[in-house]
Design brief:
Number of domains: 4
Distance between the termini: 71 Å
CATH class of the largest domain: Alpha Beta
Strand content: 5-15%
Helix content: 40-55%
Number of strands: 21
Radius of gyration: 28 Å
Strand order of the largest sheet: 5-6-4-7-8-3-9
Number of helices: 29
Largest sheet: 7 strands, parallel
Length: about 725
């Protein structure tokens, strides 16, 4: 090694090279700070100190010079890269073998253990490592460099797998942030302007007092306030797993946040993360929190958020973009897909945020919607977060899915605390509907007849094709259809029209799939629901007499169609189990305890680790885990439907011309996309109904109906959008 200065990065806008020692020291200190949240600060420092040691090689230093010369000459293609990760990983193994995987993966993603061993085999015993060890000693600056101890609880393979993932997250975020500080210091400054948890709690208290002073003296509002007070009282309890079991309309959104902020204040936690299963309701929840706590304190992070890095935006939007990278904000509102696919990913961009989960409150809204085929791996990781990373977990729903139980069928949580101790009382007080379970099977003509007899009615069925078949048996301008055959912006427009008709007392007959069952604020006189999973049935009932203006006289009719198309797998199994429960004359759907019995039986009939994620985790095969862990099973292809919007046409024309789709364009187009099942997509492609615009982007050239959405055939050509 020469005596000249070695560098980590090429010059920034100030023409300043970043010295390698400076970068290693900075990343080590940051990773140490991040890992201290789960008491792994020494390992965090070691990972940062070793991660780029390979950049000290003459080959890499020459590579940096070639990169800089290429930039000065205006060349767009960089020179071939030089690997710099293996040396640092090999040296780090002398301190702890767990450091090898995060260091090897800090650019391309966590590798498998077998791949890591193969990479390290050629250098682990090399004499040349001693040359780099001198630089490492300088970075460690007198800190102990003997073997580093792992926490005792990592003796279980699954726990060690997750510990490596969290170290990886701390290292990746530290590396990104220091590199950003070198090249774009202005971005770094924008990251730090959030309020503290004590400040947010004070804001929340003031808003709650204002709400209480303006609330009408009704039974519903009285129950909501009592539930809120129970949440605030329970927030003083020690950290752990909490159940928020509250009926629909009980104010879960606000009360859950009240609990989380107060709990974070009491236990000096860093942030609150709210994970919601449906993008259809995440916007409204995030807006509630923003209105109370301030825009700059709340990050809304999911695939449908349109944040464009390539255009000029306000400081607030830039802040949102930066916060989405690592969740370094006090309040994060995200989807369960985003949360759990990040927790099981091996990619740097997705894992970067994970260390910020430590010492937080995580609220899982509508927890019963977690995919059953992945439920056991999800529970294993959640249990690790609670037991070893200072997380308090809130499972929020009206239909608790029996996750507090341990049996040969499921390993749940050893101890849980009910936030609202007398929760069954509120299910009785807020009872707004009467369930009527129809015996036998109904033909669709009978279902259509029942719909036609009522002025304002919602009928929920189990598949898109069932919805189309039933809708086509109905006539009139007061008939509406809702399903994922309609693009999101179309569905929202129809929902707004439905809401207007309901509020004005006009006839309104709606046939829908499950898209209407959660978070869609509609209030019907009558709801009909085809037999399906029990929690889905109750969610549908939440659209009936929602505000309680009809006392307990809302009508919910549960029926079994004589022919229906049922989603396969866990959905079909759950529907059969629900039919067994519903046909029991003693079943009381107003008793929340019925769901514990239902889910306990259901777990016995399902494979809760269908993709053998646990086996892969215990083999430390991070790429395979990431590949198999998919929250959304159905293989669909997004297809753009114009929906009569010129701006959509403009994007399509531009993308077709350039062959490239920018991220902000893709996010804008998502509002005009329909997910087409792969089996149907292939058939449509052969028939010329879809056209490829660019890689991953397809345009629908068939019929798009104002009533039905994407359609292969129509009952009435007048339904077409020109």
């Amino acid at each position: 090694m020469g005596s000249n200065e070695q560098y980590a990065h090429t010059p920034n806008l100030s023409r300043k090279w970043q010295p390698l020692r400076e970068h290693l020291h900075n990343v080590a200190r940051l990773a140490e700070s991040f890992a201290s949240a789960f008491e792994a600060q020494d390992l965090g420092y070691a990972a940062g100190a070793c991660h780029d040691l390979g950049k000290a090689s003459p080959e890499f230093q020459r590579y940096l010079i070639r990169c800089w010369e290429a930039k000065l000459s205006g060349k767009t293609a960089p020179p071939p890269a030089v690997d710099h990760k293996v040396v640092g990983a090999a040296l780090a193994c002398r301190l702890s073998q767990v450091l090898a995987l995060p260091i090897l993966g800090h650019h391309g993603g966590l590798p498998s253990l077998s791949a890591a061993k193969s990479k390290l085999a050629d250098v682990s015993n090399s004499d040349t490592l001693d040359n780099y060890a001198k630089l490492a000693d300088e970075v460690f600056k007198g800190r102990a460099t003997s073997k580093l101890e792992l926490p005792r609880w990592t003796s279980e393979k699954k726990s060690l797998d997750f510990f490596v993932r969290m170290l990886f997250s701390a290292l990746v975020d530290a590396d990104y942030l220091d590199t950003e500080m070198h090249f774009e210091p202005d971005r770094t400054v924008q990251r730090f302007n959030s309020s503290t948890v004590p400040e947010l709690w004070q804001r929340f208290q003031r808003d709650q007092e204002d709400l209480l002073s303006q609330a009408a003296d009704t039974l519903v509002n009285k129950c909501r306030h009592e539930i809120y007070l129970s949440c605030i009282a329970a927030a003083e309890a020690p950290q752990g797993v909490f159940l928020l079991t509250v009926p629909t309309g009980g104010g879960k959104t606000r009360s859950a946040m009240g609990f989380a902020l107060r709990h974070a204040l009491v236990h000096s936690l860093r942030r609150v993360i709210v994970a919601i299963p449906y993008t259809s309701i995440i916007d409204q929840n995030a807006q509630v929190y923003r209105s109370i706590l301030g825009n700059h304190n709340v990050l809304e992070h999911h695939s449908a958020v349109d944040l464009n890095e390539s255009e000029e935006y306000s400081e607030q939007v830039q802040r949102q973009l930066l916060a989405a990278e690592n969740w370094d904000v006090p309040i994060v509102v995200t989807t369960t897909v985003q949360l759990f696919e990040s927790l099981f990913s091996n990619k740097t961009s997705k894992c970067r945020k994970l260390h910020n989960l430590a010492r937080s409150v995580i609220i899982l809204d509508e927890v019963q919607t977690l995919p059953t085929q992945l439920l056991q791996p999800i529970l294993d990781v959640l249990r690790d977060l609670v037991d070893h990373y200072g997380v308090s977990l809130v499972l929020s729903t009206a239909t608790q899915p029996a996750l507090a139980q341990n049996s040969c069928y499921i390993r749940g949580f050893d101890k849980t605390v009910q936030i609202v101790e007398d929760f069954p009382r509120y299910f009785q007080l807020l009872k707004r509907v009467q369930y009527r379970v129809e015996r036998g099977h109904w033909p669709w003509e009978r279902v259509a007849e029942e719909i036609s007899r009522r002025e304002q009615v919602l009928c929920v069925v189990n598949s898109r094709k069932d919805a189309l078949d039933l809708c086509r048996l109905l006539d009139g301008e007061d008939v509406f259809h809702l399903s994922t055959l309609m693009c999101p912006i179309h569905r929202r427009a129809v929902i707004e029209e439905i809401r207007r008709r309901l509020e004005s007392g006009k006839p309104c007959r709606v046939v829908s799939t499950q898209v209407v069952e959660a978070g869609v604020d509609l209030d019907f006189q009558c709801v009909m629901r085809a037999f399906g999973p029990l929690d889905r049935v109750v969610q549908a009932a939440g659209r009936c007499n929602r505000e309680g203006l009809r006392g307990t006289d809302g009508e919910v009719i549960l029926f079994s169609p004589d022919t229906q198309r049922m989603p396969k797998g866990p959905y079909a199994t759950a529907s059969k189990e629900a039919e067994y429960v519903l046909n029991d004359p003693n079943t009381n759907l107003h008793d929340p305890n019925v769901f514990e019995k239902y889910f306990s039986r259901l777990w016995q009939n399902l494979n809760l680790d269908a993709y053998r994620i646990t086996v892969l985790r215990e083999a430390f095969d991070y790429p395979a885990v990431a590949e198999r862990f998919k929250m959304i099973e159905e293989d669909t292809v997004p297809v753009v439907v114009g929906y009569g919007r010129p701006d959509v046409d403009e994007i399509v024309v531009r993308v077709e011309r350039t062959g490239v789709i920018e991220r902000h364009e893709w996010r804008a187009l998502q509002q005009y996309c329909v997910g087409v099942y792969r089996r149907d997509f292939d058939r449509y492609a052969k028939a010329g109904l879809v056209r490829k615009v660019a890689e991953g982007l397809y345009l629908w050239e068939g019929v798009y109906s104002n009533l039905y959405g994407l359609s292969e055939d129509l009952k009435d050509p007048a339904d077409l959008i020109a």
